[in-house]
Queue: 2 jobs
Job 1
Amino acid sequence: MSEIKVEFTLNDNKESVVVPAEERLLDTLRERFDLTGTKEGCGVGECGACTVILDGEAVNSCLVPTAQVDGRQVRTVEGLAEGDELDPLQQSFIDHQAVQCGFCTPGMLMSARALLDKNTSPTEEEIKTALDGNLCRCTGYKQIVDAVEAAAKKEERE
Amino acid sequence: MPEKKQVNKSKKRVDARAKVTGKAKFGADLKFHNMLYGQVVRTEYPHAKIININKSKAEEYPGVEVVMTAEDIPNNLFGVIIENQQVLAEDRVLYIGDGVAMLAARSKKAAREAAKLIEVEYEELPGVYGVEEARQADSPVVMPGEENNQVIHHPLRKGDVSEGLTEADIVMERKYTTQFVEHAYIEPEAVTVVPEERNTLVTVYGAVQNPNATRDAVANVLDCDLSKVRIIQDNMGGSFGGKDENISAMACRAAVMALATNKPVQLVNSREESIIESYKRHPYTMNYKIGAKDDGELVAMEIEAVADSGAYACQTPFVTWRSVVQATGPYEVPNVKTDTYGFYTNSPYTGAMRGYGSPPVIFAQESMMDELAAELDLTPAEIRRKNMFKNNSRTASNQKLDNHEVSLTEVMDKALSAIDYHDKYEKYNQPQDSTIKRGIGFAISYRGVSLGAEAIDAAGAIVSVQKDGSIILYSGLAENGQGLKTVFSQIAAEELGVSLERITHMETDTSVSPESGSTVASRSTLVGGSAVKKAAENIKTVIAEFVAEEYDYSGKIIYRDDALYTKEGERIVAFPELAATAFHNGVFLSSYGWYKAPGISWDEETGQGRPYFTYVYGCQAAEVEVDTGTGEVKVVNMSAAHDVGKAINPANVRGQIYGGAVMALGHALMEDLGFSKGFIKHTNFDEYLIPTVKDAPENIEAIIVENPDPAGPYGAKSIGEPAMELGGAAINNAIAQATGRRLRDLPLNLERVLLGRNLSKED
């Protein structure tokens, strides 16, 4: 079985791993880097719990072979806060009670982060489109959408 | 009353920071030294005899440490109510999720590959699929050792239903059905069992909804003392009633393999494994016969509700019991005859799911109220107001509702006004030109709080003040994602007048936390919250004695702002200093709190008595848009008013309402496991659809109604399940108004809405 050397930037750090060609980015993150904030909910790209940001785009890490991230930038939920300083989205999720069980939360945050990095003043519809690939069974989505809207407004002001 | 500082406030969740940073550990995130990965081999047929299992090739696969079958399990049966669930199938597989063998290997890949090498020879048997067949006298018997397929029958008799029906001006008969529903928690099941850790035989970590129930199962299967099994809960990625018996089965399997290998064993389900193996919400077939006077007054209801229990008894006896109490709805009916049954079939077993036995019967009964109203030329609001419970009304069980505020009028008025119901109802009754038609509907309910006559209803907690004034809180009831830790911390903080940051709410640990029954039945805030309050009150009694001695003050102590004050407002001592001084004087500032719910009664023969000590009331309304060209339904707006007694955390309550309403929307419109003779076709989220953010209504108005209840802490009752039991009927009633056609079967998918029937062969 062929193994591939992959060099990439993970949460601003240069990393290098040798992985089997078919290894999923999700498994590389969870098992080789212990970044277990990225969750597996379905394994087929439907639930969004494994969402990470790859070169600015939100992707399902269960569908991305690690071999494909060579030379690219990967950001996970662990890379959102800077030290103790939370990302405005993280703070907004806390402030708007947008977290219940918390299993979908990392994926939600990454989808929302990818949106706000590209669009500083999204409409409610644009927010919903960005989050449409992230399933949540607890919240009914209302407080999540509220949290993203509020974070966007706050970031725009700053 | 002085203003509350901690409760009745939308405090931020105490577990939110860990969850938004990715630091919160869930079951599949744990790793232990030398840990093995387990894999279960499941049956290929829903019903078959196991002729032979050949493990030898799997045993030889590199990395495999153990391969086991039912014969290796000390005691193969467990169950919360009736012990008849197999840890692994022994002679016969009874449904498509039954495990037949299991193994543990040093890597996930080895476990997966080796599992493919286990050879199982089956003799396929004819199965029983559906309750109609299961209840026939000549039906094959599903459960070995039983004489027929009946799991349970709950009768209820009040008045004389035949006489009542004779007195009626109108008698209507209708049949309604609901489907199997998947819990669809986003986190698939995960447990890790560590053998011989510290002084226990096994320690179980993972997504365990009911740690004590899982402990019972593991101890029973291992045939050891409860004290030798320790369950420590991790963060739960959703449960909704769904991580009980299936998690217990996994914990038992991992425990047996951990002891056989003397290494930690982790079992994590894929989504497909989760959907195939886990228990579902019971599908119901319900026949309703209602007699009423011309003016809408209900005189009699005759109900038969039949639930599909699937392959195991699981929680069917209790789920169907709740259906009995709620089947007639929140209405005064002098003559009632209800028969609720559960039957075994070779379908997936069914158990607890948010709402328990109420959502199906509310769907039927609240749909039927609208049908009756239409027949009598009354509005849906008029017929409900005419019959609904008021203070001192008597229920179908003949319980007098006299110990709390029966707030149906208030919840209904508030929910309907928030969505502008009356104007929209009139408007949508006029002809609508477009192919997109709107409708509006609603439903009301009363719901018994907590376990009721299912079991003894008591819970405990430990509040332990450390010498620096920080506080450790242990609860026997568990955080399942609903916000329990936050609510319990708020209650402890309120009582002791400290900031929330001072409190650390530990994970439930069965070797430490007082056994408190299961975290179910929307009982946590009322029963568990009362236990936390009691523990804090006990500590305050000790503090009062100490303050009299040490600070020479024996009046009433006011606890606020992390300090103690006299009733005149003079500061006595800061809380941390008090804690330190007490410690150095040998005064113990920790306490168990125990709360036992008020008494109840139930007559099994007649269904008469006092099934619950108090009730909650709710009303949800839905406005829909139906594309009459495609059958597509969009729920545009919802409103939901729930009397929660008192909201300990209003933002959490609203979160429960939004989540419950959207879950109900999923059940109503889209969720379908695609059954075919015991096989499940929709085993992942690409086919088993649950609501996305775009399926959720544009607006949900969540209205908290507060009539404090004497039984609850600060008057608080419950919200988790009430929030999801009404949406199905409300949406169905709205669709009926929009299309002019009444549907009676869930889910209300495109075909049913467009054609009035399902095209799939299963129907």
Job 2
Amino acid sequence: MITRVVEGWVEEPLKRFVDDARVVLALMLHPSGQVMAQHGFARAMDVMSACALAAAIHASASELGRQLDGKPFSGIHQAGKDRQLFLAEAETAQGSYIFVTVFDAESSLGLVRLYFEELRAGLASAAPALEESSEPILAEHFESELNRNLAALFGRA
Amino acid sequence: MSLVNYATREITCKIVYYGPGRSGKTTNLHYIYGQVPEDRKGKMVSLATQTDRTLFFDFLPLDLGSISGFTTKFQLYTVPGQVYYQTTRKLVLQGADGVVFVADSQARQLDENIESFQDLHANLADQGVDARAIPLVIQYNKQDLPKDLILGEPELRDAINFRGVPDFSADALHGPGVFETLRGISELVLKRLSTPGAK
């Protein structure tokens, strides 16, 4: 299985978690739904859908916790027939991230929670301080490329 | 915050379609989904009620292809328009890189449009986002309806577009204006990435 990460500092703690906790899928994302790292997904587009749904679960559960209990729920566990899902938040110097993992009979909730605490600590120590780049990312005149790509996407090229 | 992966040279941007209930936000996404080839889109996710009203959001990931050497991906979201889904709208709006405000052109919906536009500004402010700085375009949808039922572009512009942002007339059900709207917001969002210090 391939592990992909957006930023290098995430890779080592995530790989260690996947190996130790023996999970099937793992996702780390920004609360807005943007993927930061993934393990076990074959298609990039499926990762995006999973992130959108995970961000929604996290946001709605946090809000529900705030409304019912005065503070957001710290983690969620949902057991399916063959697979189980665990979702929780990790704080780093780069900000908060949502972590979601799916596991089967090869692992257990206890094991996942145990290694999640290690992952949380690993991410916190690996994250570099937040640095804003002042360099432009795209070329100044990108419009022609954008228009060509969109036209192709809509069959108008 | 557009997510930039320098290692794989990928950019991911979040675009939120906002507007009053039944203005055509989901219809925009359905039209886009129907036009785009399979290999350039993901599954469209709709969390809807039994009567197909958006309950939480619709989500459509799109691969725009390469721009300035970066593979550019857009995540399109809609919010539920009904007034009582206020909390959900706030959650979906979180981290948006750009907003498409879909207005319903029907004359009797003018107050709902204005209320929803004010709601958008309030929710952005709640999240510490300067509503004047975030990329925003307005779409006047349902311009295909009989002329005696709708307001024209000049009247809608007068009532809603006081900021003078790019705006587009549309018939999202059949397609006119959908592409132009997406192009408009894409340009504004990506322009921020081509400006020094604007990420």
